[in-house]
Design goal:
Elements (H helix, E strand, L loop, with lengths): L2 H32 L4 E7 L7 H11 L13 H9 L4 E8 L4 E8 L2 E5 L6 E4 L4 E3 L10 E4 L5 H13 L4 H4 E6 L5 E5 L5 E5 L4 H15 L8 E3 L7 E2 L1
Parallel strand pairs: 1-3, 4-7, 7-8, 10-11
Antiparallel strand pairs: 2-3, 4-5, 5-6, 8-9, 9-10, 11-12
Amino acid sequence: MKTWLKTILCVLLLAAIGTLVWWLRERSVEERMKVLCNAMEIELTGTCRCLDIEDIRTLVAQRYGAWTGQSLAEVDLGRIESILSHQSTVEKADAWVTGDGALHLKVLQRTPVARLGEGPEGCYTDAGGHLFPLSDKWEADVPLFAGTIPGDPKWLAGALEFVGFTSGDWRQRIDEINVTRSGELVLRLDGGGEDFLFGGFDRIEEKMAAADNYISSVRPIGKGYTSVNLKYSKQLICK
């Protein structure tokens, strides 16, 4: 077959395929215009439950408006995803419709790794340093930094490094993490009454190793020290 004839046939074939795709797309839109949205199916993924299913329903109703009665083609899925994704608790949101008239929402909430502060001023942070509010419906089992929480991003980065380092065996051994007005940590460990003056987030591994050495080799039986200073390299100051 001559080259020019092959070229013509290829062009005609591509045009036919393009026309078919366009026709199927238009037919799909027409079919979607006939089906009205009549139900909402919500899937919450991840471990966080700061927002529950009813919160999601209420949020869509208040920010998007009426979705029931809209045709599948009219439902603004991008807007719904944007509304949900702009919630500080939400990491990712997906919305889609199916031929049975259902609006499907899949919402992944951020995973808290620490709680910063108590009361109305408290919040959670995820591993990326994204802050989001506490919930009166659900409480995460994460380390609590109590006291005066600095608004410094560098301090938050240090706190996340500390949480990461102590997420293993230390997780159950740390009884309290208190934050002073200067942003330094004071710890209570292994059920003892001493204040471990941890200081800043420098030399985390070395300081925790020193605390472990104190608990295993130095801590007196009975009434002991009230404070153990870990701030200085290669030495403990017990009072």
